[in-house]
């Protein structure tokens, strides 16, 4: 398995937004295991970022770590420019950075809505747009956005978060159609509830409610989703674009 | 001049009580007096008529008593009904509530001799429960309660003088019990910071007796001046972030005017989660030494709370516990304002029925689906209809949710629960019974029980009134069982063996 991963992304220049912890970090690890060059962004927690850098370095990678908000266009432009300068191009972008507020609509104020849309939707738009320049130039590329089961009518989710993840689907389908001609593939990967992230703080009864609806009766692991991501952005995925890939244990 | 109708007592109910002298079961009547008081009247063939005031508010008493707790009988019955309540405890097959608050009396020793103590302690040849016995108790509690057991309470004597109480704490936590509470007078804790630190490390909680700020009252209630020790203990508990409950015993004319100040103290310390106010009960030491003029009813405590907190909490902010007889517990929850504003009673934004219903599975509020649904409906209602302090309430609830589920990271379930607990304070008023106020209607619905290694559980008031004095562990001269009347029948009862 390890050898297959190494072959899959050998030499690919990959950027993961929000890569310092949780699923983002798992994706960075999977990509490094598969032979990729890795860069990741983070917004606030330097300690997490440094730990992630150290762990990726232990794996033999030379991670590029950049702090900034995905909703800040100057940060986005600078990040992509820096990577293109260092690497000579960019093969893979994973729009992973995302936030939410666990609030009912009564408590959801305009600023909360804007914050989630800025990070989850505008961030994906800004980074995709910036990454497309080197990808179109190279007539090759892969953009993968991380969606969520929250965009489906399966479980209750904060409305702004659900809306943002649904927006990523429309964004993906439209962008895939637009840039397919340049051999740039655009997909969205929608995991179910995972063993890291928000599941950790959910009340037990909420977790149980989820698990009763899951065919496999368990949470996913971030490694499972990261491996799926590695496949989707690799050359092994030669024909899938504009797709929503669901990995949720069968909700 | 009173009319004849006004002067007549009205019968509220018949029940079985105890003679305050021989503790035989005797019939009793609970009556409403024209002056709006509720009294229990009874007569013992040997010791004459006996009366005791139960409440100063007939309407509140009757409305509260009319609430039917949810019947959740114990899964395991230890005794058949032979003599009638309260002489068949174990529990017997007529008991209607399972144990929600298991109490484990781990020692007979105490380093104080408080005049208000509702038990007698024994320091000579003191009893300290063995680890094996405690393991058996845990085993029984787990097998009888399945995964639902979330609390155990150590008492004594003074549990911290037990040489192995920390081991017991560790064992209970290892068994997955969320709330392990040590009742304490605080003396050892105040003098030994490392002990407090160890309790914190083990995730234990401390229920600290705290009755007064006043020197004279302190001496009357505790037989010593302990304020400095209590404050030092609280300082250490706060320093080490030990979840703490304050337990003041309210005594009319001695410390009941201080309840607001004690509530203020609890509200001001982040680590204090609960205040459990007991009404004085005249069993044990207090039964022998303390003046009955100190007796105070549940409703009087609620009134004193309103008066001494400037209306922060009103009597109608409290609901009874659905797990016990409604006259035993009154509970109010407060949403804390981290910006220093007045805390908001839950009843100001949640219907009392919803609070009552949310408490139906446990003695304490937990983030259950019932509570979550009730809170969501409350948020929507405040948002749509507004109302008293609606804007501030919504702001505080939003802050709480964002603390429990932060935007830019995740916290563990345990940490989320702790954040939730820190944002609220609970005030419980708990009225124990003594032989004078004893009412089998209440005893049969008790959910607090003293636990034994053979699986026996005895409701706490029954234990305090009747059973503890018979045990060699706790008495240099144990009292023997005598012949008594149970219910309406006459029959001799031999020594009841347990």
Q: Could you characterize the architecture of this molecule?
A:
The complex is a heterodimer of chains A (251) and B (498). Chain A is an alpha/beta fold and 251 residues long. Chain A has 8 helices and 7 strands, in the order αβαβαβαβαβαβααβ. In chain A, strands 3-2-1-4-5-6-7 form a 7-stranded parallel beta sheet, sandwiched between helices. The model of chain A has no long low-confidence stretch (mean pLDDT 93). Chain B has 17 helices and 19 strands. Chain B has helices at residues 4-7, 58-65, 131-145, 165-174, 187-191, 193-201, 215-222, 227-239, 259-268, 284-289, 298-308, 352-358, 369-385, 390-404, 413-422, 440-443, 460-467; strands at 10-18, 25-32, 38-44, 48-55, 101-105, 151-155, 179-184, 205-209, 244-247, 249-250, 272-279, 319-320, 329-335, 344-345, 424-431, 448-451, 457-459, 485-486, 489-490. In chain B, strands 5, 6, 7, 8, 9, 10, 11, 12, 13, 14, 15, 16 and 17 form a 13-stranded mixed beta sheet that branches. The termini of chain B are far apart. In chain B, 49% of the residues are buried. The interface between A and B is medium-sized, with 23 and 26 residues.
Taken in chain order, the helices and strands of chain A follow as: HEHEHEHEHEHEHHE
- Rg on CA atoms of chain A, Å: 17 Å
- Model regions low in confidence, pLDDT < 50 over at least 5 residues of chain B: 485-498
- Principal-axes geometry of chain A comes out as globular
Index terms:
heterodimer; A: 251 residues; alpha/beta; seven-stranded parallel beta sheet; 8 helices; 7 strands; globular; B: 498 residues; 13-stranded mixed beta sheet; four-stranded antiparallel beta sheet; 19% strand
Secondary structure elements and pairings:
The complex is a heterodimer of chains A (251) and B (498).
Chain A: H1 2-8, E1 13-16, H2 22-33, E2 37-42, H3 46-58, E3 64-67, H4 73-87, E4 92-95, H5 110-138, E5 141-146, H6 159-179, E6 184-191, H7 204-213, H8 222-232, E7 244-247
Parallel strand pairs in A: 1-2, 1-4, 2-3, 4-5, 5-6, 6-7
Chain B: H1 4-7, E1 10-18, E2 25-32, E3 38-44, E4 48-55, H2 58-65, E5 101-105, H3 131-145, E6 151-155, H4 165-174, E7 179-184, H5 187-191, H6 193-201, E8 205-209, H7 215-222, H8 227-239, E9 244-247, E10 249-250, H9 259-268, E11 272-279, H10 284-289, H11 298-308, E12 319-320, E13 329-335, E14 344-345, H12 352-358, H13 369-385, H14 390-404, H15 413-422, E15 424-431, H16 440-443, E16 448-451, E17 457-459, H17 460-467, E18 485-486, E19 489-490
Parallel strand pairs in B: 5-6, 5-16, 6-7, 7-8, 8-9, 9-11, 10-11, 11-15
Antiparallel strand pairs in B: 1-2, 2-3, 3-4, 12-13, 13-14, 13-15, 16-17, 18-19
Helix pairs in contact in B: 3-4, 9-11, 14-15
């Amino acid at each position: 398995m390890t050898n297959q991963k190494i072959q899959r992304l050998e030499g690919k220049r990959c950027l993961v937004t929000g890569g310092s912890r949780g699923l983002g970090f798992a994706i960075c690890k999977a990509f490094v295991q598969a032979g990729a060059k890795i860069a990741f962004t983070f917004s606030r927690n330097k300690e997490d970022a440094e730990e992630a850098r150290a762990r990726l370095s232990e794996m033999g990678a030379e991670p590029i770590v950049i702090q900034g908000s995905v909703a800040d266009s100057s940060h986005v432009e600078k990040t992509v420019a820096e990577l293109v300068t260092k690497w000579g191009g960019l093969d893979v972008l994973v729009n992973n950075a995302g936030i939410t507020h666990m609030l009912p609509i009564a408590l959801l104020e305009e600023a909360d809505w804007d914050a989630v849309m800025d990070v989850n939707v505008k961030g994906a738009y800004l980074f995709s747009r910036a990454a497309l320049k080197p990808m179109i130039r190279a007539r090759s590329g892969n953009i993968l956005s991380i969606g969520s089961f929250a965009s489906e009518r399966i479980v209750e989710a904060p409305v702004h978060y659900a809306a943002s993840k649904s927006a990523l689907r429309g964004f993906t389908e439209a962008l895939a159609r637009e840039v397919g001609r340049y051999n740039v593939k655009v997909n969205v990967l929608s995991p179910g509830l995972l063993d890291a992230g928000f599941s950790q703080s959910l009340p037990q009864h909420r977790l149980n409610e989820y698990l009763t609806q899951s065919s496999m009766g368990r949470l996913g692991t971030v490694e499972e989703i990261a491996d799926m991501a590695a496949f989707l952005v690799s050359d092994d995925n030669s024909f899938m674009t504009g797709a929503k890939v669901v990995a949720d244990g069968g909700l | 001049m009173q009319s004849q109708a006004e002067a007549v007592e009205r019968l509220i109910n018949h029940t079985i009580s105890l003679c305050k002298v021989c503790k035989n079961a005797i019939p009793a009547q609970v009556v409403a007096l024209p002056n709006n008081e509720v009294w229990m009247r009874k007569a013992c063939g040997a010791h004459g008529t006996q009366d005791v005031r139960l409440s100063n508010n007939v309407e509140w008493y009757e409305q509260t008593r009319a609430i039917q707790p949810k019947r959740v009988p114990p899964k395991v019955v230890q005794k058949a009904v032979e003599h009638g309540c309260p002489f068949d405890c174990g529990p017997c097959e007529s008991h209607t509530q399972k144990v929600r608050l298991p109490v484990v009396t781990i020692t007979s020793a105490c380093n104080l001799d408080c005049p208000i103590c509702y038990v007698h302690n024994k320091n000579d040849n003191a009893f300290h429960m063995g680890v094996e016995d405690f393991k058996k108790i845990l085993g029984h509690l787990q097998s009888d309660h399945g995964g639902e057991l979330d609390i155990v309470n150590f008492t004594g004597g003074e549990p911290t003088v037990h040489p192995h109480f920390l081991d017991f704490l560790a064992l209970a936590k290892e068994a997955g019990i969320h709330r392990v509470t040590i009742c304490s007078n605080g003396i050892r804790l105040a003098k030994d910071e490392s002990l407090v630190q160890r309790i914190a490390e083990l995730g234990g909680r401390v229920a600290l007796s705290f009755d007064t700020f006043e020197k004279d009252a302190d001496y009357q209630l505790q037989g010593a001046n302990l304020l400095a020790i209590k404050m030092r203990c609280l300082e250490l508990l706060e320093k080490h972030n030990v979840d703490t409950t304050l337990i003041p015993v309210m005594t009319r004319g001695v410390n009941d005017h201080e309840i607001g100040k004690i509530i203020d103290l609890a509200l001001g310390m982040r680590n204090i989660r609960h205040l459990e106010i007991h009404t004085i009960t005249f069993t044990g030491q207090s039964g022998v030494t303390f003046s009955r003029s100190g007796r105070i009813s549940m409703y009087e405590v609620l009134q004193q709370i309103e008066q001494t907190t400037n209306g922060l909490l009103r009597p109608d902010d409290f609901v009874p516990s659905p797990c016990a007889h409604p006259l035993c517990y009154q509970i109010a929850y407060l949403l804390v304002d981290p910006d220093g504003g007045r805390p908001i009673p839950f009843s100001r934004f949640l219907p009392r029925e919803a609070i009552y219903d949310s408490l139906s599975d446990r003695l304490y509020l937990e983030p259950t689906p019932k509570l979550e649904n009730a809170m969501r409906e409350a948020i929507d209602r405040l948002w749509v209809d507004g109302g008293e302090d609606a804007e501030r309430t919504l702001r505080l609830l939003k802050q709480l949710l964002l603390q429990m589920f932060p935007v830019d990271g995740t916290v563990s379930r345990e940490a989320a629960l702790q954040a939730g607990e820190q944002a609220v304070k609970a005030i419980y008023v708990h009225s124990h019974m003594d032989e004078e106020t004893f009412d089998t209607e209440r005893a049969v619905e008790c959910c607090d029980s003293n636990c034994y290694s053979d699986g026996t559980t005895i409701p706490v008031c029954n234990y305090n009134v009747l059973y503890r004095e018979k045990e060699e562990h706790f008495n240099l001269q144990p009292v023997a069982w005598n012949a008594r009347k149970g219910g309406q029948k006459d029959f001799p009862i031999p020594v009841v063996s347990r």
